[in-house]
Write a structure and sequence with these properties.
about 120 residues, 7-stranded mixed beta sheet, 4-stranded antiparallel beta sheet
């Protein structure tokens, strides 16, 4: 079975930083797949935050996080990261990683709270 496990969330004061990790197992195409980070606030639609393409040389960022978040990947560890700097209260959300065709596989999420 494909499993995605996010970690690194927590509570931080505004202006602080966090690095989220997402380890993927049971997915043979990790190194050739696009990987994504999403976030969701209760009562709101899920938002695509960042995505990184094969090879790690190209990435997409939502306008709301450009210059603030950095996505990266380690294919040897089957892990994708999201470095989040200068955090703001509006970044508070549950953060999810996803992989696969049309992001078919998702983790359970990790809570990020910025106060």
């Amino acid at each position: 079975d494909v499993q995605l496990v996010e970690s690194g969330g927590g509570s931080v004061q505004a202006g602080g930083s966090l690095t989220l990790s997402c380890e993927v197992s049971g997915y043979a195409w990790f190194s050739t797949s696009c990987l994504g980070w999403f976030r969701q606030v209760p009562g709101k639609e899920r938002e695509g935050v960042a995505a990184i393409y094969t090879g790690g040389g190209s990435a997409y960022y939502a306008d709301s996080v450009k210059g603030q978040f950095t996505i990266s990947r380690d294919n040897a560890k089957n892990t994708v990261y999201l470095q989040m700097n200068s955090l703001k209260p509006e970044d508070t959300a549950v953060y999810y990683c996803a992989v696969g065709r049309d992001f078919a596989y998702w983790g359970l999420g990790t809570q990020v709270t910025v106060s």
